[in-house]
Design goal:
The longest helix is centred in the middle third of the chain and has 22 residues. The chain has a 7-stranded mixed sheet with strand order 3-2-1-4-5-10-11, sandwiched between helices. A 4-stranded parallel sheet has the order 7-8-6-9, sandwiched between helices. It is an alpha/beta fold and 328 residues long. The chain is elongated. It is built from 11 helices and 11 strands. The protein starts with 6 loop residues before the first strand and ends with a helix. 42% of the residues lie in helices and 18% in strands. Helix 1 packs parallel to helix 9 and helix 6 packs parallel to helix 11. The protein folds into 2 domains: 183 residues, Rossmann fold, CATH 3.40.50; 117 residues, Rossmann fold (3-Layer(aba) Sandwich), CATH 3.40.50. Bound molecules: 6-O-phosphono-beta-D-fructofuranose.
Length: 328
């Protein structure tokens, strides 16, 4: 394993997710293991442009593996989308002698990393950190497993009150424009219907399905709605539509929002983060760049940034069928 690289920077970018701290910890400790200096970059590309760096060592990351969020903070940077902004960032890295980067974030962060690599021939590796699980080249992004468990717990709580009041709840979950969270928590939470962007159920079919549930003796129902799916409407308009077109239902809405992004990372996410951090640093040491580390069949593999960014993460259609059968 070549070790010409002596200084590596690590940062978190885009929407935060549980497991990012575990990944920072792994990158820093893998650098320490290989006697490479590691610099934390605060607030993603914004902090890089400002030179907001901190030297980190194995002790800097103690006690964070179980912490949600990111100790390096995160941000979305408009300035980094400009060549001037990227040139400022490059200058800051040069001033510090940082020779390579590990970017923990989503597809937007990887797009910036890929352009930066192309413009300055600067080695970059990516670790997929987003609760959406919407990145091609990995079955799991960091934070997805934790978010699923957080949301299922919330749905169980909503189920308690829905069944006490014989109510129908529309529960909106995150995922920006993919239905992975909605589909999995819908099955796990026993939802009567799951609305995802990948499959347009349509309002009439929704009402029909809810009528069937009622006729089958269900006194309360839960409909999980992915934030990217509105059948063209907001979740509140869905409520109004059902209110106006269905008798006998007392309808409520619960938008889970940003609590889905918090919480202590699950064991799965901590282990995944630790594995990905090692792979990212050791890939840089081997001279590899412009790749995202991902999990495929429980093996940590590399996917070129351009494929990770352009590729589509497919919804599990078998799971969609399971959800139909389970909601009989
Ligand atoms: O990409 C992760 C995510 O949580 C999406 O699921 C959500 O739509 C978005 O970020 C929210 O972005 P922000 O944190 O900027 O409100």
């Amino acid at each position: 394993m070549s070790n010409s690289i002596q200084k590596i920077g690590v940062m978190t970018s885009g929407g935060d997710s549980p497991g990012m701290n575990a990944a920072i910890r792994s990158v820093v400790r893998t650098c320490a293991y290989h006697n490479i200096e590691c610099y934390g970059i605060y607030r993603g590309y914004e902090g890089m442009i400002e030179g907001d760096f901190i030297e980190m060592n194995a002790r800097s990351v103690k006690g964070i593996i179980n912490k949600g969020g990111t100790i390096l903070k995160t941000a979305r940077s408009k300035e980094f989308r400009t060549k001037e902004g990227r040139a400022k960032a490059y200058k800051q890295l040069q001033n510090k002698g940082i020779e390579a980067l590990v970017v923990i974030g989503g597809d937007g962060s990887f797009t910036g990393a890929m352009i930066f690599n192309q413009e300055f021939n600067f080695p970059v590796m990516g670790i997929p950190g987003t609760i959406d699980n919407d990145i091609y080249g990995t079955t799991h992004t960091l934070g997805y497993d934790t978010a699923l468990n957080t949301v299922v717990e919330a749905i169980d709580k909503i189920r308690d009150t829905a069944s006490s009041h014989n109510r129908l709840f529309f529960v909106e979950v995150m995922g920006r424009d993919v239905g992975h969270i909605a589909l999995n928590v819908g099955v796990a939470g026993g939802a009567e219907e799951i609305l995802i962007p990948e499959e347009d159920l349509g309002l009439d079919r929704l009402v029909e399905s809810l009528r069937r549930s009622k006729k089958s003796g269900k006194s309360s129902s839960i409909v999980v709605v992915a934030e990217g799916d509105k059948i063209g409407k907001s979740v509140f308009e869905l409520k109004d539509y059902v209110d106006q077109n269905m008798e006998g239902y007392d309808v409520r809405v619960s938008v889970l929002g940003h609590m889905q992004r918090g919480g202590s990372p699950s064991c799965f996410d901590r282990v995944l983060a630790s594995r990905m951090g090692v792979k990212a640093v050791e890939s840089i040491m081997e001279g590899t760049s412009n790749y995202m580390v991902g999990l495929k069949n429980d093996i940590i593999e590399l996917t070129p940034f351009d494929q990770a960014i352009k590729g589509q993460s497919k919804i599990n259609m078998e799971l969609l069928r399971v959800s139909d059968i389970m909601s009989i």
